[in-house]
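Quick question, first post here. What does this chain look like in 3D?
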Amino acid sequence: MMKDIYADFGGLSIYDLERITKDTTLNLYTKIQLLALTKSKDELKELGRSQYRSLVHQRGSTFNPYDTQLIKPNLESMNQLGLLKPSNDFLVFLPYSWIIQFGFTLAKPYISRDDEPLYIIDNPVRKDKIFKIPTISSASWKGNLRWTWMKTYLETIKDMRDEDFAAERLRQMLLFGSEKGMDEKFSKGWSGYLDNLRPSAVTQYHHLIGKNFGKDDRLIHFKGRLHFYPTFFNKIDLIVINPHDRKTKTGKNPIYVECVPAGAQGVFSLLYTPYDLFGKKDASIESEILIDLHHSCAAIKEMFLTYGFSAKKNSGFGTSTDSLQDGELLVRYKLNEFFEKKKGMEGIWSFKFKSLSELASCISGDTSR
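> Answer (accepted):
Ran it through. C-alpha cells below.
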C-alpha cells in the first residue's frame, strides 16, 4: 500500500510535531521538510522552528544531529562511490595539465542560498540535491576565483600599462572562459565592468582576442582552461542575525541563517587543461603553463585567506585557515626542464604542501623534490 508522507502528517497538530521528531524511521532531512509545513500555521510556527534548531544546532557541542545522523554517513557513502573528490589517475592522459587538491578548514562561517522551494527558515545553506550535504558548487568556485583574480591582477594595480592590462585580461579569459556580456553589441555584465575598469585598453584587448582566435571576439564562446569541482562540508549550523532599530538601538525580530560553521572541513580541487595550446611548440606551451600555474596558486591563496568565497564575503564570511590537509600539486609535463632536469622524459611531477602560503610560493621555490 502506498502512503504519502505529507498526507500522513498533514494535520500538523502538536501531536504530529512530536511524532515527527521522535520517529526513528524518518530520515533527518525528511523531518526538516515536514517541519516546514508549520510555516503556514501561526500557532505552530515557533514550535516548528524550535524543533528544527534542535536538529541543526546544539550549544556546547561540536556536532549536532544533522552532522552525525546525515552528513557523516552520507560523506562515507560518497567516498565509497568516488564522488567526494576527483581521482588523479586521469592526469596521465592529459599532457601539459595539472591538478591542485587540498583539504581546508574554515576560519569564518560560510553562507550561501539554496533554491529549496519549501524550507522551515528563509535562509538555508546550499546542499547537494541527493545527499543533502552542505556544498559549494563548481560554478561558485569558478565565479569566486575569477573575481579574486580580477581584484589581484587587474583592479588593484593602478600603474599597469594598457597593453599589460589587455594581456592580463586575455589570460583571465583563456583560463575562465568567455566573459559574460561580451557577445552583446555594447558590452554588459562582467565584460562591461572590465571595459569600464580600463577603457583605454579595450581596443588592444579586442585586438589580442582576434589575434589569438582569428575571428571576431563577439563570436567566441570559449570554455576556459580551468575546471572546477564541488566541495562538500562535514558540518552545518545556525547563526542569528539580529537587526537593530536605528532610533531605539533595540533588536528587532532575529533572522536565522543556516551556515557551514568555522572549523568545518572540505576539499578543494582544480584541474588545468590547456587544450587550446595543443599542437604548438613545447617551449611556448611550457612558458604559458608556468605563468598560469604561478598566477593560479597566488589567486587561490588570496581567495581563501583574504577575499573569501562566501555570500557576504565583504563582511568577512567564507575564509579559511592557512594550514591545509593532504595538499598536493600534480603536473603532467613533457620536455620541461623546470619540472625535470633530464630532457626527453615524460611523467608526473608531484609537489606536496601543508599551507596556502607554501602553495603560492612553490613555483619560485625549490622544485627539486
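The longest helix spans residues 282-307.
Residues 341-345, 365-369 have pLDDT under 50 and may be disordered.
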